[in-house]
Each structure stands twice: as structure tokens, then as C-alpha cells.
């Protein structure tokens, strides 16, 4: 018992001194890069989702059209759809959070954040430069997040079990996690936002077992944290963050098979997980289906070509 206590004390001391911060930055580099880069794609995947009645969430066709445009990299068309929805439904937090998603995804595209050469190289991720965002886009992004947060919380004061409000807040936290990690290079702040997203998702699942999209947020955290080094997983569990790699994959499969907004994104994450586990055939199969479903997105053909050239 004394040895265990001494181990815990030593670990906490090293964490306070910043030693574990370095381990976190390096050990999660590959997984963190892939998942946070693509989390923004989450809200752009309505075109091939399950029937709305099975998801537990409102799934208006007008927003679906905007998400499909966004995921096919028609950013202007997507923002036009989202703006129209916000005008027609000013009380719906899904309007501004979708706008925020479109702004961040277009900024990622402009800055080259989605380039795949960073996905598998931990050193490249750790050494990445802090990017310079467009200040106007950043202001619009933050304003959209603030509007969505305000609208969602206003709905929760009237109904604490408002499913769309909880889902919107889950997305708000996820988008902020992306911005912090991949543009501002603030990894620990990104972990904070990811924990918020997981908490909101768990709230939603507690009242809506068939809100399958929420499983992506829980699966996201479980898989990423479960991929880290054992000492890091131990410390993060102490902080209330889940670390269960196989449980994360199970959650992602639930969303991939039954989700709405996030179903195709869950397929993306599963494809990446298969690459990390060196299951090339399943990764190629998943990416090929995504290429067929979203022909306007050039990322899938590039990833397929890259995998096919590998031994």
C-alpha cells in the first residue's frame, strides 16, 4: 500500500512539474490529430443517416441539405443553407452550431489541417506550428458558438431534458476542442472541451437511449484516451475522463450503424482505427463506401490511394 501511495504521489508530482504534460502531448499525437481534425466533419453527415424516427433527435431536411453541402466541401452553399435555417428558426440552437461547424471546417481546409501526412507521425504532430487563423472567421465562429450555447441553455431552463439542446451543447464543446487543439495548439484546453462534450452526451443518453449520435462523443473520448500510455490513462481516469479503447470502438459502431448527423463521421473514425490497428482491408472498405457516398470530398480518394501504396 505504501508503494502504491508513493507511486501515486510521484506521478502527481511529475504531472505538476509538467512531465506528464509532455507524455500526453506525445503519446496521443496520432490519435488526437486524426480525431480532432475530423470531429468538425461530424455535423456534415446527414445525407446517409438513419431514419429520423430512430435517432431520438429532430432532423430537419433543410439542415440535412446544408450538412451534405458542407461535407462535400461546398462551404458557401452550406453557409447559405444554415443562414436560411437560422432566419426561419431563430430559437433553434442547431442553426448557429451548424454555422460554427461550417466556419471551422472551411478554416481547416484553408490552413491545410486535413493533410494526412500528419496522421501517423507523432513527431510531426508534436512539432506542428501554431496556425494563424483568419481573425474575422474566428470572431464569427466564436459568435456562432455563443449564440448556440445561449439558445440551448435557454431551452434547458424550460425543459432540462430537451434533446436538441443537449445535442447542440455537445457539438459546441466538440468544435471548441477542435479549434483549441488544431489551430491554437492548446491541447489541454482541448481535453477540457472534450470532457464537456462527453458529459453532455452522457446526459443525453440518460434520457434518450436511441440518441445514437451521442455515442460518438463518448466513443471519441474512450478511444483516444484508451490509446494513450498506461500512466496517462490512469491520471485521466482520476480526472473523470474515460479511457477504454475497445469500449470506444463499440460506441463508434453504434453511431455508425444507427446515428443520423454523426453516422458517416463514426465510419471515418472506425476507418482510422482500423488503420491504426493495421487492418488495411477493413479500412479500405470503409473509406471506399465514404468515397461513394460523398463524391465531392477529395480526402477519401487521397487516403485510399495512400493506403493502397503501402505494403
Topology:
Elements: H1 2-17, H2 19-27, H3 29-39, H4 61-71, H5 75-88, H6 94-111, H7 122-126, H8 135-158, H9 163-182, H10 187-207, H11 214-226, H12 230-238, H13 245-258, H14 263-276, H15 280-293, H16 299-308
Helix pairs in contact: 3-9, 3-14, 4-5, 5-6, 6-8, 6-9, 8-9, 9-10, 10-11, 11-13, 13-14, 14-15, 15-16
Explain this structure to me?
By secondary structure, this protein is mainly α. Helices cover 72% and strands 0% of the residues. It has 16 helices and no strands. It has helices at residues 2-17, 19-27, 29-39, 61-71, 75-88, 94-111, 122-126, 135-158, 163-182, 187-207, 214-226, 230-238, 245-258, 263-276, 280-293, 299-308. Helix 3 (29-39) runs antiparallel to helix 14 (263-276), helix 6 packs parallel to helix 9 and helix 13 packs antiparallel against helix 14. Residues 1-54 have low confidence and may be disordered.
Keywords:
single chain; 311 residues; mainly alpha; 72% helix; globular; disordered N terminus
Shape: globular
Topology, number of strands: 0
How much helix, percentage-wise, in residues?
A: over 70%
* Topology order in helix (H) and strand (E) letters: HHHHHHHHHHHHHHHH
Number of helices: 16
Mean pLDDT level: 75
Integer-rounded radius of gyration: 19 Å
- Give a quick account of the main beta sheet: strands, pairing sense, barrel closure: none
Structural class designation: mainly alpha
The low-pLDDT segments are: 1-54
| Strand composition percent | under 5%
Q: How far is it from the N-terminal to the C-terminal residue, by CA?
A: 48 Å
